[in-house]
Amino acid sequence: MSFQYVPTLLRTPSIPNWSIQRGIWRGVGTDNGLLAFNTNNYSLGYYVITQNLWAYQLKIDSSVYSPVFNDVNGYIYWQYSGYYLYYSRSFGWILHNRFPGYEPKENYNSETRQYDGDAFHAGSIPTAADGATSYLQPRGTNRNGGGANKTIAFQFPRWQSINRTQFGEYEAKGGLSGKKYIGLPRWRDNSYNYYVRSLEKKNGSFSYSNISLTNGKWLIGEANSPAGWYEGEEPSKTAPVTFRFCKPEGSTVSGYNRTLKLADYVQGSETTSAYMGEVAIWR
Fold first, then answer.
1. Lower CB density within 10 Å: C or N end of the chain?
2. Is 244 contained in some domain?
3. Alpha-carbon distance 71 to 2, whole Å?
4. 146 burial class (0-12, 13-18, 19+ CB within 10 angstroms)?
5. Judgement on whether residues 171 and 200 belong to the same structural domain of the protein
């Protein structure tokens, strides 16, 4: 799993109960299309990976509304088909089939004892936590005849850090499956030397700090060095790998074998170009 940090000054309209950090991590290679960021939310494990999803979805009854990052009265809005959940200056959060920003009308007719105007619902946004819900009450002409409330549920498909740390293993939440990892795997041997895998392959193979594939052999050090060297196999995430101490024939130097085990995941130091997108020049 490979991610690349992208510092950005990207800003969005306000998102209720949501405050993400400016910098993001973008997936590269097999992780292309994934985003990773800090939600600043304990309930979500702080750090998450998503499938190109910057903010949570909202499930209203059985329909899933996706976030749209356009400003409507200072907030983003959510959309499903021809329906919109947006912030109204008069009624707060409303569900309507008019364009976002439209201020609905609601008038009580004392002669007919009915409500005139638009048919919409109004209520609140749930907190950003799995299982959280809130309600929308019927407003306008929906109040006639005792209209029913609508349930809004928080929904956020993601992989969530199991240890609430940025680097390491992430578990699936919100209907996703499998595991993800952020950071480069790091191994430790029995002498507490550490070996970090490279981000990219070179000449068809990874390198691991001072472990490299040379003439078909995985080596620590340089073969035939007077001080000795080590030969073994490519480090494995699932099982220990032992590197045998080797020395030139007739040499009196001594050393011990090194056994490597996966220790953790860490941030690497390699850099490369990142394509962020395109914007039109305003003239």
1. C
2. yes
3. 33
4. exposed
5. no
Domain coverage including residue 121: 57-152
Q: Which residues does residue 33 pair with via DSSP β-bridges, in sequence order?
A: none
At position 271, the amino acid (one-letter code) is: T
The residue count for the chain: 283
Q: What is the pTM of this model?
A: 0.82
- pLDDT at residue 30 in the model: 84
The pLDDT of 118-147, averaged and rounded, is: 95
Residue 278: which pLDDT band, with cuts at 50, 70 and 90? low
Q: 68 and 50 share a domain? A: no
Spell 75-88 as b/e; 16+ CB within 10 A means b.
bbbbebeebbbbbb
Cα–Cα distance, 90 to 241 (Å, whole number): 66
Q: What are phi and psi of 94, to 5 degrees?
A: -130, 155
Q: What is the DSSP letter of 44?
A: G
If we measure between CA atoms, which residue out of 55, 12, 50, 5 comes closest to residue 26? 5
283 belongs to a structural domain:
no
52 and 164 in a common domain: yes
**Whether the Cβ atoms of residue 77 and residue 99 lie closer than 8 Å to each other:** no
pLDDT the model gives residue 268: 82
* Residues 100 and 221 occupy one common structural domain: no
Asked whether residue 169 falls in the same domain as residue 50, the answer is yes
Q: Average pLDDT for residues 6-20, to the nearest whole number?
A: 84
In the predicted model, what is the mean pLDDT of residues 118-142?
Answer: 97
**pLDDT at residue 9 tops 80:** no
